[in-house]
Specification:
The chain is an alpha+beta fold. The chain contains 16 helices and 23 strands. The longest helix is centred in the middle third of the chain and has 15 residues.
C-alpha cells in the first residue's frame, strides 16, 4: 500500500478549560490520518494562541506547550499534504488576524478548482502565505465575515461558493463552528463529555478522550457552539457521497462512520474476497495494519487458518519517507518482517487493502518467499484503482496506477504472486450494509459525484 491519508481534525469547547490537552489526545488518536505536520490553536479569554510544526503529535508538543495553550476552546489538526506539499507554513490550524478579529481553521479535504480560485482571489488583492488550498477557504470566510453579522453566517456564505471536499472546524474568540461539504466526502462527528462539546474526524478520537459519541454531522450541515449551546445553522443537503476508501484503508478499525463499523466493513470485504476468489492454501496472512481485518474475514469464509505472517515495525508510520523508487524496497524491509515459523513450507493467502503501483506488493511477496513460503496468493480487499481522486486522497495519476497499464494477469506476473484477485465492484457495494449514507467510488469507477 502506497497511498497517503488526507488529514484529521479535532475541535473542543469546554468551560472547565485545558482544551489544548484534550485536543492533543484527540490528535494522537487521529495520527493515522496524517503524519507530516500537526498543530493546535486555543482560546484563552478571547485571545488566540497556537503551536504547530512539521512532525508527529508526540514530537511537536510537550507539557510546557500544552500548559501554555490551555484554553476553553481549541482546534487541532494532523496533516498529510494532498495539496501544497510538505512545508512548515502549510501546517494547520491556519490562523489569521483580520479586521473583525482572529480565526483558526482546520480542514480535511481538497478543492479541485483551487488554482482557479487562487487566481480569482489574487486578482482581488489577496496575498497568500501558504500553498495550501485550506488558506483559500480561510480567505473566503474572512471576506464573507466583512458582510455577515456572525462568523457562522460567514462560514455558510463562504462555503456556498466552493466546490470540493471539506470537513471543517473554524474557531473565533467566542464560537466553534463545524461544517461538512454538501457531498459529504470526508467524515466528521460530534460528541460530549459533561459540558464539553467536541468534533472529530473519527469516533475513535472521541473514545480516546472519554467523550460520548452523539452523532455524525450530515453532508452540508453547519453547526455552531457558543457558551456550550449547540445550534444547527444549516441543515443536511442529502445522503452525500462519503469516500468508500475510509472503510477500506483510511479510518481506524475501532471507528464507526455513518453507523457502520470500520472493522466490520473490512472483515466483510475479506469474506467476499474468499467467496469470489477461493484458493487452496494453508494460512491466511494480512498486511498490517488495514489488511488484517480483511484477512480475518477471508480466513473466516474460506476456513483457511489466520496467521500472523508479517510483523510491522511500530516505530515507522504510514508516511515513512521513501525518496524515490529505488528506495521503496528498502522501505518495505524496514517496515515489515516476515515470520518464518508461520509461512515456511506453506501455501499463503496474502490479503492487502489495495494495490496502487504494485511495487510494495512485489516486495512483500518476495519477503514471504524468502521466509520459505511455498506459494503466495495475493488478494486485494479493494477493486483496481483506475482513476485519480480530486477530493483529498493522494491517489497517483493514471500513468502511475498499475491497473491502468496492465491486465490482472500481467500485474500478477509483476508482483511474483502465484495468483491475484481484486474485490469486485459489486462486493464493494455490500461491505457497508449499515451505513446511512451514499458513497464516492470514483477512484474505482472513474465516475464522480460532481462535475470536474
Amino acid at each position: 500500500m502506497e497511498l497517503h491519508e488526507e488529514c484529521g481534525v479535532f475541535g473542543i469547547y469546554d468551560p472547565v478549560g485545558d482544551c489544548a490537552r484534550t485536543a492533543y489526545y484527540g490528535l494522537y488518536a487521529l495520527q493515522h490520518r496524517g503524519q507530516e505536520a500537526c498543530g493546535i490553536a486555543a482560546i484563552n479569554d478571547r485571545e488566540l494562541s497556537f503551536h504547530k510544526d512539521v512532525g508527529l503529535v508526540g514530537e511537536v508538543f510537550h507539557e510546557g506547550i500544552l500548559d501554555e495553550l490551555n484554553g476553553t476552546m481549541a482546534v487541532g489538526h494532523v496533516r498529510y499534504s494532498t495539496a501544497g506539499g510538505l512545508r512548515r507554513e502549510n501546517a494547520q490550524p491556519l490562523t489569521l488576524n483580520y479586521v473583525k478579529g482572529t480565526l483558526a481553521l482546520a480542514h480535511n479535504g481538497n478543492l479541485p478548482h483551487a488554482d482557479e480560485l487562487r487566481t480569482k482571489f489574487e486578482y482581488q488583492g489577496a496575498i497568500f502565505q501558504t500553498t495550501s488550498d485550506s488558506e483559500l477557504i480561510a480567505y473566503a470566510i474572512a471576506q464573507a465575515r466583512l458582510r455577515c453579522p456572525s462568523v457562522e453566517e460567514a462560514v455558510q456564505k463562504a462555503l456556498s461558493g466552493l466546490r470540493g471536499a471539506w470537513s471543517l472546524i473554524v474557531m473565533s474568540p467566542r464560537k466553534l463552528v463545524a461544517a461538512r461539504d454538501p457531498w459529504g466526502f470526508r467524515p466528521l462527528c460530534m460528541g460530549r463529555r459533561g459540558k464539553a462539546v467536541m468534533f472529530a474526524s473519527e469516533s475513535c478520537a472521541l473514545d480516546a478522550v472519554g467523550a460520548r459519541f452523539e452523532r455524525e454531522l450530515d453532508p452540508g450541515e453547519i453547526v455552531a457552539v457558543e457558551d456550550g449551546v449547540v445550534r444547527t445553522i444549516q441543515g443536511p443537503a442529502g445522503r452525500g457521497h462519503l469516500c468508500i476508501f475510509e472503510y477500506i484503508y483510511f479510518a481506524r478499525p475501532d471507528s464507526t462512520i455513518c453507523g457502520q463499523s470500520v472493522h466490520e466493513a473490512r472483515r466483510r470485504a475479506g469474506y467476499f474476497l474468499a467467496q469470489e476468489y477461493p484458493v487452496e492454501a494453508d494460512v491466511t496472512v494480512g498486511v498490517p495494519d488495514s489488511g488484517l481485518d480483511a484477512a480475518l474475514g477471508y480466513a473466516e469464509a474460506s476456513g483457511i487458518p489466520y496467521g500472523v505472517g508479517l510483523v510491522k515495525n511500530r516505530y515507522i508510520g504510514r508516511t515513512f519517507i521513501t525518496p524515490g523508487q529505488d528506495h521503496r524496497e528498502q522501505a518495505v524491509r524496514i517496515k515489515l518482517g516476515a515470520l518464518r515459523s508461520c509461512v515456511a513450507g506453506k501455501r499463503v493467502v496474502l490479503v492487502d487493502d489495495s494495490i496502487v503501483r504494485g511495487t510494495t506488493s512485489r516486495q512483500i511477496v518476495s519477503l514471504l518467499r524468502e521466509a520459505g513460503a511455498k506459494e503466495v496468493h495475493l488478494r486485494s480487499s479493494a477493486p483496481p484503482f483506475i482513476a485519480p481522486c480530486y477530493f483529498g486522497t493522494d491517489i497517483p495519476n493514471k500513468d502511475e496506477l498499475i491497473a491502468c497499464r496492465y491486465s490482472v494477469e500481467e500485474i500478477r506476473a509483476q508482483t511474483g504472486a502465484d495468483s491475484l484477485a481484486f474485490l469486485s465492484l459489486d462486493a464493494l457495494k455490500r461491505i457497508v450494509p449499515n451505513a446511512a449514507c451514499g458513497f464516492c467510488d470514483g477512484c474505482f469507477t472513474g465516475k464522480y459525484p460532481l462535475p470536474l
